[in-house]
TrEMBL record:
Residues 247-283 are annotated as: Disordered. Its main location: membrane. The gene is pssA. One of its GO terms (molecular function) is CDP-diacylglycerol-serine O-phosphatidyltransferase activity. InterPro entries: CDP-alcohol_PTase-I, CDP-diaglyc--ser_O-PTrfase, CDP-OH_P_trans, CDP-OH_PTrfase_TM_dom, CDP_ALCOHOL_P_TRANSF_CS. GO terms for biological process: phospholipid biosynthetic process. Belongs to the CDP-alcohol phosphatidyltransferase class-I family. Keywords: Lipid biosynthesis, Lipid metabolism, Membrane, Phospholipid biosynthesis, Phospholipid metabolism, Transferase, Transmembrane, Transmembrane helix. The keyword Cell membrane does not apply. It catalyses: a CDP-1,2-diacyl-sn-glycerol + L-serine = a 1,2-diacyl-sn-glycero-3-phospho-L-serine + CMP + H(+). It is an enzyme of class 2 (transferase). This is CDP-diacylglycerol--serine O-phosphatidyltransferase.
């Protein structure tokens, strides 16, 4: 009877993952129709869903291998393909080969970043990301496009800058720079009343100029990795920048142990621990 039991998946966390996937697809479609503001906003919306699906899975105890794999595929679309194509349609097309190569560097960086993250589950230090997280890289590229539209900047006139930001974002994803994951922050504990006022102030600042504020925030976050490395290392070596091959893959799956599993949905009672990548992000 058990062997013939019909398999299924948990609905809620996968609906959120699907919503994030749709947002990434929508961003591509909007960029193809020159609606770049909508495309950029859609990528930020995908980041919200990406942050929710794992948390909802943990809260509802609906983690599974299927959810983890589906989430990784969705991240590749929303934070890999979508930002690259949005940037290409916005300001890289007129650069010819240089333009599409810059976009490909970003896509390849996102794919390698996600693959490396998946092989380091339960092994890497949860306090840090190795390399810029894919949602943060996507936010940097999307924020650049959004700022350009808000301030009437023609991307084709600044194609070289668009190529640099896009390409460097891809390279930072596969770098060995450490970025704070903010996973050690306690979100469930009590905080002083002034913290609520600070949060309100942040919302006001973001609402005043959302595109510019978000772009600056994620640009500073992207810069923080290299700055912290150069500040804390006496002599910077190649391993401090890109790491060694054995550090990036070929981990023994038996050692993959995590205190906070984040696989999302399966009818099986045996659940393998997976650590969800966050932005503040992912994927």
């Amino acid at each position: 009877m058990t062997a013939n039991k019909r398999k299924g998946i948990y609905l809620l966390p996968n609906l959120l993952t699907t919503a994030g996937l749709f947002s990434g697809f929508y961003a591509v479609v909007m960029s193809m129709n020159n609606h770049f503001e909508s495309a950029a906003i859609a990528i930020f919306v995908a980041m919200i869903f990406d942050g929710l699906d794992g948390r909802v899975a943990r809260m509802t105890n609906t983690q599974s291998d299927f959810g983890a794999e589906y989430d990784s595929m969705a991240d590749m679309v929303s934070f890999g393909m979508a930002p690259a194509l949005v940037a290409y349609n916005y300001g890289l097309a007129d650069l010819g080969k240089i333009g599409w190569l810059a976009a490909f560097v970003y896509v390849a960086g996102a794919a390698l970043r996600l693959a490396r993250f998946n092989t380091q589950v339960g092994i890497a230090d949860k306090r840090f990301f190795q390399g810029l997280a894919s949602p943060a890289a996507a936010a940097l590229v999307a924020g650049m496009v959004w700022v350009g539209i808000d301030y009437d900047i023609d991307g084709n006139d600044y194609g070289v800058i668009v190529a640099l930001v896009t390409g460097l974002s891809g390279l930072l994803m596969v770098s060995n720079f450490k970025y704070n994951s903010f996973k050690e922050v306690e979100w469930h504990g009590k905080v002083p009343f002034v913290a609520l006022l600070v949060v309100m102030l942040i919302f006001i600042v973001v609402a005043t100029a959302p595109s510019l504020v978000l772009f600056i925030v994620f640009m500073l976050y992207a810069i923080a990795g290299p700055v912290n490395t150069f500040r804390t290392v006496d002599k910077v070596t190649l391993e401090d920048v890109i790491g060694e091959a054995e550090e990036d893959a070929d981990f023994d799956p038996v050692e993959e142990v995590s205190d906070e599993p984040d696989i999302k949905d399966d009818n099986s009672k045996e659940k393998m621990p997976v650590d969800k990548e966050e932005t503040g992000s992912k994927n």
